[in-house]
Amino acid sequence: MIDNILEVNHLSVCFELDHQTTQAVNSISFQVGRGQTLGIVGESGSGKSVTALAGMGLLPSPPGRITQGEIWLKPVHSDPINLSNLSEVERDRKSTR
């Protein structure tokens, strides 16, 4: 069994501009095991960068927002952290540890 350090489950992201909603990522799921490397490939505009920005908490909000799913970081010596619902203050506090 692989010890995952990152799990992305059914992540969906949209952008709202000028009262119009655009789905940028639609229910993507993947896992990254401890010590593994993951490459995400796809066509231009397929949501690769938006997925990464959402995971790092750098999604410009507004207009972008996570509409569904979870992003779990599983550090070795602490409890799992659901990155998809951390506030900016919580995210800043976690980054200083």
Could you describe the 3D structure shown?
- The chain has 97 residues and is of the alpha+beta class.
- It is 18% helix and 41% strand.
- The protein has 2 helices and 4 strands.
- The protein has helices spanning 48-56, 88-95; strands at residues 4-17, 20-33, 64-73, 81-82.
- Strands 2-1-3-4 form a 4-stranded antiparallel sheet, covered by helices on one side.
- Strand 1 (4-17) and strand 2 form a beta hairpin.
- The longest helix has 9 residues, at 48-56.
- It is globular and about 45 Å long.
- It starts with a strand and ends with a helix.
Principal-axis shape: globular
**What Rg is obtained from the alpha carbons, in whole angstroms?**
14 Å
What's the main sheet like?
A: 4 strands, antiparallel
Tell me, rounded to a whole number, the average pLDDT.
89
Provide keyphrases for this structure.
single chain, 97 residues, alpha+beta, 4-stranded antiparallel sheet, 2 helices
Give a brief outline of the structure.
It is built from two helices and four strands. It has 97 residues and is of the alpha+beta class. The longest helix has 9 residues.
Structural topology:
Blueprint: E1 4-17, E2 20-33, H1 48-56, E3 64-73, E4 81-82, H2 88-95
Antiparallel strand pairs: 1-2, 1-3, 3-4
